[in-house]
Amino acid sequence: MVQRTLVLAAAVIAAGGFVGSAYAQDAVDVDAAKKEGRLVWYTSTPIAIGQKIVDMFEKEYGIKVEMFRSGGSAILRRFHQEMDAGRVAADVMTTSDPAAAAAMTRKGLFVAFRPKDFEQIPEAAKDPQGHYIAQRLNLMTIYLREDKVPPADEPKNWSDVLDPKYKGKLVTTDPSFTSLQVSVVGMMSKNRGWSFFEKLRANDTMVVQSNQQATDMLKRGERLIAVGALDSYAADERMKGHPIKTLYPADGVFVIPSPTSIIKGSPNPNAARLFAAFMISPPVQKLFPAGGGYAARLDVEPPAGAPSLKDMKIVPIDYDYIEKESGRIKRRFNEIFQ
Amino acid sequence: MAGITIKGLSKRFGAGETAFAALTDLDLVIENNQFVTLLGPSGCGKTTTLRLIAGYLSPDAGTIHADDRLLSAPGSVVPPEARGMGMVFQNYAVWPHKTVYENVVFGLRLRKVPAAEARRKVEETLALVNLTGLESRFPNELSGGQQQRVALARSLVVEPGILLLDEPLSNLDAKLRERMRSELKQLQRRTGITFVYVTHDQAEALALSDRIAVMHGGRLQQYGTPVEVYSRPANRLVADFMGLVNLIPARVVAAHNGGGLVEAEGGLRLALPLPDGAAPGDAVEVAVRPENIRLRAASGDGAPCARITDRTFLGNISEYYATLPSGQVLRVQTHPLQQFAPGETVTIDIDAAQCSVFRP
Amino acid sequence: MTASTPIAEASARPGVAPAAPGHRVRLEHVVMGAAIAALVILVVLPIAALLLGSLVGDRGLSLDHFGEVLTGRLYLTALKNSLVLGAWTGLFSLLVGIVLAFAVSRTDVPGKRLLEITASLSYLSPPFLTAIAFVYLFSPNAGLINVFMRDVAGLPWATFDIFSMTGLVLVTALHTFPYVYLLASSALQSVDASYEEAAQILGASKLRTAISITAPLVAPAILSGTLLAFVNAIALFGSQAIIGLPGRVVTLPTRIYALFDYPPEYGLASALSLVFVVITVAALYLQRAFLSRRSFVTLAGKGGRPQLMPLGPWRWALFAFGVGVFLVAIVAPYATLIAVSISKSWGLDFWKGLTLAHYKFILFDYNVTQRAILNSLMLATVAATLAVLLGAVIGWIDLRTLIPGRKLLDYASLIPLGLPGIVMAVALIQFWLRMPIALYGTLAILLLAYVGRYIPLSVRAANASLRQVDPSLEESAQILGASWATTMREITLPLIRPGLFAGWLLVFVPVIQELSASILLFSSGSITLAVAVFNLYETGYVEPVAALAMINMAIIGLAIFVANKLGGGGIAQRTTGYGAPA
After folding, report:
1. Sheet with strand B246-256: strands edge to edge
2. Chains C and A touch (3+ CB pairs under 8 A)
3. pLDDT category of residue A21 using cuts at 50, 70 and 90
4. Distance, CA of A271 to CA of A39 (rounded, Å)
């Protein structure tokens, strides 16, 4: 794996530079895909967008997509259990755990596939051979109820949330369920030590399973500040009229790609390729900014009203470390919070 | 029509310590066209025998033949549905979800009898049991007696060679029971079907049967005509079961060629037939039925005397408790017009010819 | 013998039997063999695999997994939490159940029908839905009732944190009190009035009679109901995940579930499952012991129904209590779920955003929920049918044959009562992972789980119906020449049909809402309704969750309606009587 400790921002900034035809584009047999007629997609994509992708694909090609939607870690768990049981049910899988995707690539579980527009995806968000390709980029940050937290009280950086004045107001997600959180907790604990989470626990932080649940806690006012949660949900609720504000901590946000892979030996290989190619096509990619998130493609604009990734301080993520430690990260997190 | 031959039939239930011998070594020959009753108290093995004949149970030992056909042997049992018998159950077992007609026609349908013929046969059979006109009723719209007849008709319509009846009258009231009793008997005579009838009611057995098999404790005690089992009981159990009986302890005084003289305590002496091998000095019991003792006013002619201690008027007879000088109490049944008062001393005459003698 | 009678013709063909006997394999033996084999595959082998799985470790056979499970802090905490949950739930079920049962059976309290309905609905309502609803009502800061108490009523001390052991006990007891209620009320109603009248005629007061005569007579039934409540309470995965996890109250089901995090710890999960089984079986053993003591006291003679106790004004207090339970257990959760399901986005002004969009989404747009609904309907139908047929055969073998070991078969069919749903799932995974057939993640393994879990219900139902059918009804068909199959078709099955139908619903309703086993066994294609609800909740889509919950209840409601129409009423009561753990 080349240079996996990389700063995604750098790639984004360099975007203009490397667009080229270094890749030979892999062909897709559309007829064979249509003959297969269906495929199974395991994904942690937000439900509404996921369903839209499914509907668009069905409309475009007449191929049925059976979507299974859960948290990224839950998806991975189920996928692995099914592999153990000798059953490959999924054709395509999208999670938000690049470390796991890299590990599974090395185990030879994925098909190498470089579809059209492969070069439009930043290097850091894909495997050079195309074993996994980002579907979207996830901004993991802090957001809060702006009607209940006065501007003066807003945390400026990550360690501010440990202030006792936020006691009982914080919510975060569980890395055992949400794969995005594996990277966040991994890097936070690596950079700041586990004491960060012990203090978070001492500040009576609520742990929920998913990012959507964290947003839900804010919507209902059960908690006021989400720590290390997916910004696109906040943006989505903001569009519906909820007073939720995204913060960009001075010490950096996390930007984590959601890799999509084709499963080796899956029942519908051609439909899977077609779907994976479709995933990075402009119509699909534009769904993400429309829902408040960031597309994987460099040539798609950031969501309306949100800053470009270029303008943010981004915390580098050591995916080798995350991959090696992910079991321990989840376990340690649970030990602290249970 | 068929006869049944049972040889060495045994059946146990349960295993190990809780095992229970329901039937032990039964030999029984039921002749064709006969009305044979299996009689005995509950638990005597009579129903087990019937269910073995029907094929619901398989024997542990012994065989059952119908005519020359082997029906049951250990490990090899012709199932009930292939025996061609009929059976009437104590609770009638009339199917509650079928009408009278459907109940009766069931066996004919199984035999693929053409519909028109089946209808005719059902009608004839229902007429035979006096149920004409009730074809479309459901069992819950019928009286107990009517249900009983449905059960009978259902068994008869298929013209079985053998009809098994398991206490079919026990759930009927006394009057109806008596009427059904005579109907059953007529039916058997008319059809010539071999009836094997189970009951614990000795009066019913006596009234209906050509032959009675008295059973007790899983063993056959006696097999004979009603008169034989009543008046010449094979043993004390049979005597006791076949009706009221006085048992008088006695000692053999003299014995010769099957007859002899016995003396009871208090000097009561009777000359009567003795069991084989009885020798002077042997302790025996004399069984005498209440109707075989006569009472008359004290006469002083040397016949034994007794004192009346209780009297019960039963309508057609009177029953007395007469206490002998030895303290032995005898039950005596007399004509109701013959009257004695409690406390009165009477002379008793015992009809020695009607007595039986058992070893205790 | 006159020639005119039909019987006379019989002499021409004596003893004609319609079928010749043969030594070919008989149908009944095939059917019975299949039923026994099914029970072995459904129950016995998975349990054996569970046992084996708990003993096989890195170093071959060892007790290492048990060692870890019985000393590790995480596991002991879960064990302790489960026992605490079960004990408190049992106690609350006892209090609520006994008061309602006494009120309905022995007093002149008004509105008895309402109280009965409350008990039935509380039992039938899936506890994970109640849990979700209660999160909306009592989440510490934003729960509707908490907000009202704190901000409107100005009573901050009157707020309640649902994410706690107390909250979990409350939600669970609302589902389990009917066990006590139903057993207690049936016991109270079957105590022969003459026992009490005999005490009264000797000069005992009403209270004295209640304490010294009635209470000892019904105590075994009540204790038995309490133990059933305990067993069921600790087995419910859904509510323990929804309420327990955010409150950091980890219990045995949620701990076992967590052990399936990748990489799954099958050995530890199996060992912990067996510890779970030991607790459940011990409780059920006690329950059976209590219940068997009951039998000789309440099956009394011909005395009349007990007198109702006039309570005077107190009956209104009792009535108020019943209405309170009704409001808390039924009205509040369902009103909340309905409200959430029709709000555009929960948390915004409710009246400005009324919409049916979420129903449209789950029914017509979102293919996961569509699939889940179809899967659940299909699985419930097939599982209920299979369970009932299997139950009928097993019941028949037990009651109508003398096959050696038939009692063993009957006991084997009861084993699943002692298996919490998640344990059943672990056992099935352990077994089928070792088999060459890849069943994991298919509809088939869910079907096995459901039939296996609910086989006790259908066996009991078939058994109860068969006991009503005197064997002579079958024997009389047999002696007329009917084969086994004909006898079954013509006599037995028509006669036990109402019972089988009740049994069918007895299995259908819980399968529709089954979560505890499904959560480990489902896959994308085999996702079920309850899993979809849980999955949507877990991922935070609250409004569609509520809409799907209402669909779930609509299906259950429809099933009960049909049941009452065709099965002759009282299905709900019957459903509870058998008491399978969730």
Report:
1. B269-273, B259-264, B246-256, B283-288, B356-358
2. yes
3. very low
4. 6
Domain tally for chain C? 2
The lowest-confidence range among C114-128, C182-196, C276-290, C537-551 is: C182-196
**Whether residue A282 has a cis bond before it, omega within 30° of 0:** no
**Do both C509 and C578 map to the same domain?**
yes
Question: Given an 8 Å threshold on Cβ–Cβ distance, is C539 in contact with A216?
Answer: no
Helix (H) or strand (E) holding C534: helix C529-538
Mean pLDDT value of segment B285-309: 86
pLDDT value of residue A84? 79
Q: Which amino acid is at C61?
A: L
How would you classify the pairing of strands B246-256 and B219-224? Answer: unpaired
- E-strand ranges in B96-245 read 162-166, 194-199, 211-216, 219-224
- Distance of CA B87 to CAs A229, B52, B82, B167, C480, Å? 80, 12, 13, 11, 8
Q: Are C383 and C447 in contact (CB under 8 A)?
A: yes
Interface test with C, best of A209, A218, A239, A324 (most C CBs within 10 A): A209
Cα separation, B242 vs B222, in Å, equals 11
Cβ of A80 within 8 Å of Cβ of C262? The answer is yes
Dihedral sign (CA C7, C12, C17, C18): negative
Residues from chain A contacting residue C524 (CB–CB below 8 Å): 40, 42, 66-68, 89-90
pLDDT exceeds cutoff 60 at C178: yes
Please state, as a whole number, how many other Cβ atoms lie within 10 Å of the Cβ of residue C176: 33
Q: Which two tokens stand for residue C325?
A: 């339970």
| CATH number of the domain encompassing residue C357 | 1.10.3720.10
pLDDT-derived band at A18 (thresholds 50, 70, 90) equals very low
Domain of C286? 90-248+278-301+312-341
**Is residue B294 within 8 Å of B345, Cβ to Cβ?**
no
Locate all alpha helices (DSSP H) within C202-249, ordered by sequence.
Answer: 206-209, 215-235, 237-239
- Going through C8-151 in order, the beta strands assigned E by DSSP cover 56-57, 60-61
Structure tokens at C530: 């309850």
User: For residue C572, what pLDDT is reported?
Assistant: 43
pLDDT for residue C434: 80
Q: Kindly report, residue by residue over C252-308, the tens digit of the pLDDT.
A: 999 998 888 767 788 889 999 999 999 998 988 888 887 776 544 444 444 456 667
User: Domain A138-254+318-329, what fold?
Assistant: D-Maltodextrin-Binding Protein; domain 2 (3.40.190)
Q: How many angstroms separate the CA atoms of C183 and C229, rounded? A: 11
Chain A interface, best mutation among C519, C539, C541, C542, by max A CB count within 10 A: C539
Question: Does C contact B via 3+ CB–CB distances below 8 Å?
Answer: yes
State pLDDT tens for residues B152-195.
Answer: 999 989 889 999 999 988 877 888 888 888 888 888 988 889 99
Statement: residue A311 has pLDDT above 60: yes
Question: What DSSP assignment string belongs to C40-86?
Answer: IIIIIHHHHHHHHHHHEETTEE-SHHHHHHHH-HHHHHHHHHHHHHH
Q: Show the tokens assigned to B274.
A: 């003795």
Mean confidence (pLDDT) of chain C: 82
Question: Touching check for C476 and chain A: CB below 8 Å?
Answer: no
The domain B4-240 belongs to what CATH superfamily?
Answer: P-loop containing nucleotide triphosphate hydrolases (3.40.50.300)
